[in-house]
Design a protein that fits this description.
- With 246 residues, the chain is of the alpha+beta class.
- Helix content is 42%, strand content 17%.
- The protein folds into two domains: 93 residues, 5' to 3' exonuclease, C-terminal subdomain (DNA polymerase, domain 1); 116 residues, Cytidine Deaminase, domain 2, CATH 3.40.140.10.
- The chain has ten helices and eight strands.
- A hairpin with a 2-residue loop joins strand 1 and strand 2.
């Protein structure tokens, strides 16, 4: 509140402006810039990368939440890339300057893909695998199971969706996953599915499914390299935790 005099009397008024929440208002371990410096650009989420471009949020909402809201509103990066500057500025917290910066960053990415269409993403870590799919899968309302199919050099061949809906051992048919791998002549694959609750902690069903897939892969000579569980801008590598992998 601020004070001013009216007819010789001091009165309180609402502040002329409310400051938006900046990057520095986040806890240090949540700041996207610091996270990128610590773990590298491939290990941070799409929302965090977008937050770095945006720099500031709106009153009552930090910049990371604004980035997540943008990705949800436009259904992730493809929708964001298709949106016009006018459409972007209709989102609370996005003015013309922010809209232009978003479009410029996405256009650089598009031109990079155009200049090197023969280059395929290469998976070298669980973070690479998670970030390939996280922007599309973090906020899905239903569980989706996808595969990251790879060649002998761990280059991505395809990322098909195999199941949609509640996933458990009675629903998932191991043969369907390997059929997709054989169709693409994949040497290996990583399984990925999301938890709509936002908590990526693996369930007992996740462990059981992973065990089945690893056993089948050893028989078919197709390596199951990991099972990634995706939450809200977080993920768990079951391989790293030793869940389902002997």
């Amino acid at each position: 509140m601020t004070s001013r005099e009216v007819n010789g009397r001091s009165t309180e008024t609402e502040p002329a402006a409310t400051y938006s929440l900046m990057m520095r208002d986040l806890a240090e371990h949540e700041r996207p810039r610091e996270r990128l410096l610590k773990v590298g650009e491939r290990a941070v989420s799409t929302a965090e990368l977008l937050a770095i471009i945006l720099r500031s949020g709106v009153p009552g909402e930090n910049v990371l939440r604004l980035a997540e809201r943008l990705l949800t509103t436009f259904q992730d990066l493809p929708g964001l890339a298709r949106a016009s500057i006018a459409e972007l500025t209709r989102v609370k917290g996005v003015g013309p300057a922010k809209a232009v910066e978003i479009k410029a960053a996405l256009e650089i990415g598009r031109r990079l893909l155009t200049s090197a269409p023969q280059e395929k993403p290469r998976i070298t870590s669980p973070g690479d695998a998670a970030n390939l799919l996280m922007s599309e899968m973090s906020f899905l309302e239903k569980e989706h199971l996808r595969l990251i199919l790879m060649d002998t050099r761990n280059r991505v061949l395809a990322t098909p969706t195999i199941y949609v809906g509640s996933l458990n051992t009675s629903v998932i048919r191991v043969g369907e996953l390997f059929r997709a791998a054989i169709k693409e002549n994949a040497a290996a694959f990583i399984v990925a599915h999301n938890h709509p609750s936002g908590d990526p902690s693996p369930s007992s069903e996740d462990v059981a499914v992973t065990q089945q897939l690893v056993k089948a892969g050893s028989l078919l000579n197709i390596d199951v390299l990991d099972h990634i569980v995706i939450g809200h801008n977080r993920f768990v590598s079951m391989k790293e935790r030793g869940l389902g992998f002997s």
